[in-house]
Amino acid sequence: MMATPAATLPAGDQWSYEVKWDGYRAQGVKNGATVSLASRNLKNITKQFPSVAHMIANLCAKSAVVDGEIVAVDEKGRPSFQGLHHASFEGLAIVYYAFDLLHVNGRDLTRLPLDDRRAALRDVAGGSGILLSEPLPGTPAQISAAVRRLGLEGVVAKRRKSTYAAGRRSDAWIKVRFARHQEVVIGGFKPNGRTFDSLVVGYYDGTRLMSAGKVRNGLTPHLRADLFARMQPLITPRCPFANLPSSGSSHWGEGITAEEMTLIAWVKPTLVAEVSFVEWTRDGSLRHAAFLGLRDDKRPRDVRRETPAASSRS
User: What are the catalytic residues?
Assistant: First the structure.
């Protein structure tokens, strides 16, 4: 189940509010002595996060399916999405914030109200090491102010009586991001010797991959080297973007001219990244975009331009 983006939080007693954690969405599955972790696109990530798998094994149930977020946090408890991409996790702790329980001991809970699923989750999670993503107290304005003050990514509002709509985006869950983030597909790069200067990224509009401009900021030497190696086998002579060259100038973060296209190495659109940015330009490019990390848990074809709704739902 996925949340619908919005510009503001809905208000009313029928809603509850949780922190939007900046990490990897993952479902933990326990079936007797067998434990597995699956990303949102059902990729098996059990070996990547053995400590989380151990927590799932400690659930107080013979079998269970838990939904939540794997988060890397620093010594002050602040999430670090980039930290999830460093194999050593040096200086970071890997935690699992669970927010839903879908099955337990052979019983399907997806048709129960959210409040009932949360209560069942508290019963099975105790002593496992799993952290619960508990509802936040206060009004939407108070919650927004507190979450912003802590520098967290955003808030998810959920209808208390909603059932679990597996595999689809639902307006029973509303997400509001305070820092503007966007998932993007990497479709090319501008070479610079044995590395690259910038990435060319985009999103899907139907079946067409649309360019969203370039990304240069946020790329450390380690990330550049890793990305450069991963892009090499994907190089292709064909531009994957349907809207290039654009009519925009070649200024940073704006359009890509026909002349500039001759300098770009195109790649097959298989890598998904997450970026932060200031705003969308009129020509549909990301302004002042900064690389945050790769999203191995997302399918390229699922990447769409996120445009928050103009108003909240009551």
Answer: 20
